[in-house]
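task queued by scheduler; priority normal; single chain, no ligands, no partner chains; default sampling; output format set to C-alpha coordinates
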Amino acid sequence: HGLSYVEDSTNRDLARFRNWVRWRLLPLLKEQNPKVERAVGRFMEILREEDSLLMERARSIGLSLSREREGDVELSRSSLAELPKGMRRRVVLELIHSLGGDARWTHLETLGYLVEGEGEARVHLPGGLMVVREGENLRFTRELDKEPEDVEVLVPGPGIYSLGEYLFHFQEIREGGEKVVVSPWSLLIDRDKVDFPMIIRYKRPGDVIYLEKVGHKKLKDLFVDAKVPRRERGRTPLLVDSQGRILWIPGLRWDARVLAGGGTRRHLLVAVRRGARGGEKNSSD
Protein backbone atom coordinates (compact mmCIF):
# COMPACT_ATOMS: atom_id res chain seq x y z
CA HIS A 1 0.00 0.00 0.00
CA GLY A 2 3.03 2.25 -0.16
CA LEU A 3 3.17 2.69 3.61
CA SER A 4 6.51 2.35 5.36
CA TYR A 5 6.89 0.37 8.61
CA VAL A 6 7.27 2.49 11.74
CA GLU A 7 8.23 1.03 15.12
CA ASP A 8 6.84 2.55 18.32
CA SER A 9 9.79 4.05 20.18
CA THR A 10 8.42 2.76 23.49
CA ASN A 11 8.63 -0.89 22.37
CA ARG A 12 12.27 -1.05 23.54
CA ASP A 13 11.69 0.76 26.84
CA LEU A 14 12.47 -1.88 29.50
CA ALA A 15 10.87 0.28 32.17
CA ARG A 16 7.56 -0.88 30.71
CA PHE A 17 6.61 -4.30 32.08
CA ARG A 18 5.41 -5.72 28.75
CA ASN A 19 8.77 -4.91 27.16
CA TRP A 20 10.69 -6.43 30.05
CA VAL A 21 8.72 -9.67 29.65
CA ARG A 22 9.29 -9.70 25.87
CA TRP A 23 13.00 -8.82 25.78
CA ARG A 24 14.29 -10.19 29.10
CA LEU A 25 12.01 -12.86 30.53
CA LEU A 26 10.98 -14.76 27.38
CA PRO A 27 14.56 -15.27 26.12
CA LEU A 28 15.46 -16.81 29.51
CA LEU A 29 12.43 -19.13 29.40
CA LYS A 30 13.24 -20.18 25.83
CA GLU A 31 16.68 -21.32 26.98
CA GLN A 32 14.91 -23.87 29.21
CA ASN A 33 12.05 -24.67 26.81
CA PRO A 34 12.23 -23.57 23.14
CA LYS A 35 8.46 -24.18 22.83
CA VAL A 36 7.55 -22.00 25.81
CA GLU A 37 5.54 -19.52 23.69
CA ARG A 38 3.32 -22.30 22.35
CA ALA A 39 2.88 -23.76 25.86
CA VAL A 40 1.95 -20.39 27.34
CA GLY A 41 -0.49 -19.74 24.48
CA ARG A 42 -2.17 -23.11 25.03
CA PHE A 43 -2.39 -22.45 28.78
CA MET A 44 -3.94 -19.02 28.21
CA GLU A 45 -6.54 -20.50 25.87
CA ILE A 46 -7.55 -22.99 28.58
CA LEU A 47 -7.83 -20.15 31.11
CA ARG A 48 -10.02 -18.12 28.73
CA GLU A 49 -12.38 -21.06 28.19
CA GLU A 50 -12.70 -21.82 31.90
CA ASP A 51 -13.06 -18.15 32.78
CA SER A 52 -15.90 -17.84 30.26
CA LEU A 53 -17.62 -20.87 31.79
CA LEU A 54 -17.29 -19.55 35.35
CA MET A 55 -18.50 -16.06 34.43
CA GLU A 56 -21.54 -17.50 32.68
CA ARG A 57 -22.29 -19.49 35.83
CA ALA A 58 -21.78 -16.36 37.95
CA ARG A 59 -24.15 -14.41 35.70
CA SER A 60 -26.84 -17.08 36.16
CA ILE A 61 -26.42 -17.11 39.94
CA GLY A 62 -26.50 -13.31 40.08
CA LEU A 63 -29.79 -13.20 38.17
CA SER A 64 -31.34 -15.71 40.58
CA LEU A 65 -30.17 -13.86 43.71
CA SER A 66 -30.75 -10.23 42.68
CA ARG A 67 -33.91 -8.15 42.50
CA GLU A 68 -34.72 -4.66 41.29
CA ARG A 69 -36.11 -2.08 43.69
CA GLU A 70 -36.83 1.54 42.81
CA GLY A 71 -34.31 1.55 39.99
CA ASP A 72 -31.54 -0.08 42.03
CA VAL A 73 -30.43 -3.71 42.24
CA GLU A 74 -30.22 -5.59 45.53
CA LEU A 75 -28.35 -8.77 46.44
CA SER A 76 -29.03 -10.80 49.58
CA ARG A 77 -25.95 -10.79 51.81
CA SER A 78 -26.82 -14.15 53.37
CA SER A 79 -27.18 -15.77 49.93
CA LEU A 80 -23.83 -14.34 48.84
CA ALA A 81 -22.18 -15.54 52.04
CA GLU A 82 -23.20 -19.13 51.23
CA LEU A 83 -21.22 -19.06 47.98
CA PRO A 84 -17.53 -19.99 47.78
CA LYS A 85 -15.47 -16.80 47.94
CA GLY A 86 -14.23 -17.22 44.37
CA MET A 87 -17.75 -17.51 42.98
CA ARG A 88 -18.96 -14.71 45.26
CA ARG A 89 -16.40 -12.34 43.74
CA ARG A 90 -17.40 -13.36 40.23
CA VAL A 91 -21.14 -12.88 40.94
CA VAL A 92 -20.52 -9.37 42.29
CA LEU A 93 -18.12 -8.47 39.47
CA GLU A 94 -20.51 -9.67 36.78
CA LEU A 95 -23.34 -7.63 38.30
CA ILE A 96 -21.11 -4.54 38.45
CA HIS A 97 -20.18 -4.95 34.78
CA SER A 98 -23.83 -5.45 33.80
CA LEU A 99 -24.64 -2.10 35.44
CA GLY A 100 -21.90 -0.31 33.52
CA GLY A 101 -19.46 -0.11 36.41
CA ASP A 102 -16.00 -1.53 36.97
CA ALA A 103 -14.02 -2.94 39.89
CA ARG A 104 -10.43 -3.82 40.66
CA TRP A 105 -9.10 -6.41 43.08
CA THR A 106 -9.03 -3.94 46.00
CA HIS A 107 -12.68 -3.05 45.38
CA LEU A 108 -13.70 -6.73 45.35
CA GLU A 109 -11.84 -7.32 48.62
CA THR A 110 -13.65 -4.37 50.24
CA LEU A 111 -16.99 -5.61 48.92
CA GLY A 112 -16.24 -8.91 50.64
CA TYR A 113 -16.19 -7.04 53.95
CA LEU A 114 -19.58 -5.53 53.09
CA VAL A 115 -21.00 -9.03 52.76
CA GLU A 116 -19.61 -10.27 56.08
CA GLY A 117 -19.67 -7.13 58.25
CA GLU A 118 -22.47 -5.33 60.07
CA GLY A 119 -23.84 -1.80 60.05
CA GLU A 120 -24.32 0.63 57.20
CA ALA A 121 -21.37 1.11 54.86
CA ARG A 122 -20.68 1.89 51.22
CA VAL A 123 -18.06 1.46 48.50
CA HIS A 124 -17.66 3.83 45.54
CA LEU A 125 -16.61 2.09 42.31
CA PRO A 126 -15.18 3.30 38.99
CA GLY A 127 -17.89 4.18 36.50
CA GLY A 128 -20.06 6.09 38.99
CA LEU A 129 -21.49 2.99 40.68
CA MET A 130 -21.92 2.70 44.43
CA VAL A 131 -22.58 -0.37 46.59
CA VAL A 132 -24.33 0.21 49.93
CA ARG A 133 -24.77 -2.27 52.76
CA GLU A 134 -28.31 -1.84 54.11
CA GLY A 135 -29.47 -4.43 56.61
CA GLU A 136 -29.53 -7.85 54.96
CA ASN A 137 -28.86 -6.55 51.44
CA LEU A 138 -26.22 -5.00 49.25
CA ARG A 139 -27.71 -2.25 47.10
CA PHE A 140 -26.08 -1.35 43.78
CA THR A 141 -27.05 2.15 42.76
CA ARG A 142 -26.07 5.07 40.54
CA GLU A 143 -28.16 7.56 42.44
CA LEU A 144 -26.15 10.17 44.32
CA ASP A 145 -27.05 10.27 47.99
CA LYS A 146 -27.50 14.02 48.08
CA GLU A 147 -30.02 15.56 50.39
CA PRO A 148 -33.00 17.07 48.53
CA GLU A 149 -33.43 20.82 48.50
CA ASP A 150 -34.97 22.37 51.60
CA VAL A 151 -38.40 22.93 50.11
CA GLU A 152 -41.79 23.04 51.77
CA VAL A 153 -45.32 22.77 50.44
CA LEU A 154 -47.98 24.99 52.01
CA VAL A 155 -51.29 23.24 52.72
CA PRO A 156 -53.94 25.98 53.14
CA GLY A 157 -56.89 23.58 53.17
CA PRO A 158 -58.29 20.24 51.99
CA GLY A 159 -57.01 19.06 48.62
CA ILE A 160 -54.20 17.18 46.92
CA TYR A 161 -50.56 18.13 47.38
CA SER A 162 -47.27 16.51 46.36
CA LEU A 163 -43.68 16.61 47.55
CA GLY A 164 -41.13 14.56 45.64
CA GLU A 165 -42.64 11.18 44.92
CA TYR A 166 -45.27 11.43 47.67
CA LEU A 167 -48.88 12.46 47.12
CA PHE A 168 -50.92 13.81 50.07
CA HIS A 169 -54.72 13.89 50.04
CA PHE A 170 -56.40 16.02 52.76
CA GLN A 171 -60.13 15.35 53.18
CA GLU A 172 -62.59 16.55 55.82
CA ILE A 173 -64.85 13.76 57.09
CA ARG A 174 -68.33 14.49 58.38
CA GLU A 175 -69.46 12.88 61.63
CA GLY A 176 -71.36 9.72 60.78
CA GLY A 177 -70.08 9.88 57.20
CA GLU A 178 -68.10 7.33 55.23
CA LYS A 179 -66.13 4.64 57.06
CA VAL A 180 -62.44 5.46 57.38
CA VAL A 181 -59.74 2.83 57.22
CA VAL A 182 -56.66 3.98 59.12
CA SER A 183 -53.24 2.53 58.18
CA PRO A 184 -49.56 3.51 58.49
CA TRP A 185 -50.15 5.59 55.34
CA SER A 186 -53.28 7.39 56.54
CA LEU A 187 -53.92 9.56 59.59
CA LEU A 188 -57.22 10.67 61.13
CA ILE A 189 -56.74 14.03 62.83
CA ASP A 190 -58.94 15.88 65.32
CA ARG A 191 -59.61 19.18 63.49
CA ASP A 192 -60.18 20.97 66.80
CA LYS A 193 -56.57 20.21 67.75
CA VAL A 194 -54.91 21.07 64.44
CA ASP A 195 -55.89 23.75 61.97
CA PHE A 196 -54.78 24.90 58.55
CA PRO A 197 -52.42 25.97 57.17
CA MET A 198 -50.09 22.98 57.47
CA ILE A 199 -46.77 22.30 55.81
CA ILE A 200 -45.22 19.30 54.09
CA ARG A 201 -41.42 19.30 54.11
CA TYR A 202 -38.31 17.17 54.52
CA LYS A 203 -36.37 16.77 57.77
CA ARG A 204 -34.12 19.48 59.10
CA PRO A 205 -31.31 19.46 61.68
CA GLY A 206 -32.69 19.31 65.22
CA ASP A 207 -36.15 18.02 64.24
CA VAL A 208 -38.03 16.19 67.00
CA ILE A 209 -41.41 14.49 67.24
CA TYR A 210 -43.54 13.82 70.33
CA LEU A 211 -44.18 10.11 70.89
CA GLU A 212 -46.67 8.73 73.38
CA LYS A 213 -44.99 7.25 76.51
CA VAL A 214 -41.62 8.43 75.20
CA GLY A 215 -41.80 12.20 74.93
CA HIS A 216 -39.84 14.18 72.38
CA LYS A 217 -37.42 12.16 70.26
CA LYS A 218 -34.94 13.32 67.65
CA LEU A 219 -35.83 12.27 64.12
CA LYS A 220 -32.22 11.20 63.57
CA ASP A 221 -32.49 8.67 66.41
CA LEU A 222 -35.96 7.59 65.31
CA PHE A 223 -34.78 6.80 61.77
CA VAL A 224 -31.81 4.82 63.11
CA ASP A 225 -33.99 2.80 65.53
CA ALA A 226 -36.51 2.09 62.76
CA LYS A 227 -33.68 0.99 60.42
CA VAL A 228 -34.70 3.50 57.76
CA PRO A 229 -31.96 3.42 55.06
CA ARG A 230 -29.76 6.52 55.15
CA ARG A 231 -30.68 7.49 51.57
CA GLU A 232 -34.39 7.49 52.49
CA ARG A 233 -34.14 9.65 55.59
CA GLY A 234 -33.67 12.94 53.76
CA ARG A 235 -36.42 12.07 51.28
CA THR A 236 -39.11 11.10 53.81
CA PRO A 237 -41.82 13.79 53.97
CA LEU A 238 -43.07 15.26 57.24
CA LEU A 239 -46.46 16.77 58.01
CA VAL A 240 -45.96 19.86 60.17
CA ASP A 241 -48.42 22.33 61.68
CA SER A 242 -48.10 26.11 61.42
CA GLN A 243 -46.17 26.22 64.72
CA GLY A 244 -43.48 23.84 63.42
CA ARG A 245 -44.72 20.83 65.38
CA ILE A 246 -44.20 17.56 63.49
CA LEU A 247 -47.54 15.77 63.36
CA TRP A 248 -46.71 12.75 61.26
CA ILE A 249 -43.95 10.83 59.50
CA PRO A 250 -45.98 8.84 56.94
CA GLY A 251 -45.44 5.11 57.20
CA LEU A 252 -43.56 5.47 60.48
CA ARG A 253 -44.80 7.45 63.54
CA TRP A 254 -47.18 10.23 64.55
CA ASP A 255 -47.92 12.62 67.39
CA ALA A 256 -50.73 10.82 69.23
CA ARG A 257 -51.96 14.05 70.82
CA VAL A 258 -53.60 15.15 67.57
CA LEU A 259 -55.35 11.88 66.71
CA ALA A 260 -59.13 11.76 66.48
CA GLY A 261 -60.85 9.92 69.31
CA GLY A 262 -64.27 9.07 70.66
CA GLY A 263 -65.08 12.67 71.48
CA THR A 264 -63.88 14.13 68.17
CA ARG A 265 -66.48 16.27 66.40
CA ARG A 266 -64.53 17.27 63.28
CA HIS A 267 -62.25 14.85 61.46
CA LEU A 268 -59.51 15.39 58.90
CA LEU A 269 -58.27 12.37 56.96
CA VAL A 270 -54.76 12.63 55.50
CA ALA A 271 -53.81 9.81 53.13
CA VAL A 272 -50.40 9.42 51.48
CA ARG A 273 -49.46 7.51 48.36
CA ARG A 274 -45.92 6.95 47.19
CA GLY A 275 -44.88 6.91 43.55
CA ALA A 276 -46.32 10.26 42.43
CA ARG A 277 -43.06 11.67 41.02
CA GLY A 278 -43.83 14.23 38.33
CA GLY A 279 -47.53 13.63 38.85
CA GLU A 280 -50.39 15.74 40.13
CA LYS A 281 -50.03 19.44 40.84
CA ASN A 282 -50.70 20.87 44.29
CA SER A 283 -54.27 22.08 44.54
CA SER A 284 -56.93 22.74 47.13
CA ASP A 285 -60.63 22.02 46.81
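post-processing summary
- Confidence is low (pLDDT under 50) at residues 277-281.
- The CA atoms of residues 154 and 199 lie 5 Å apart.
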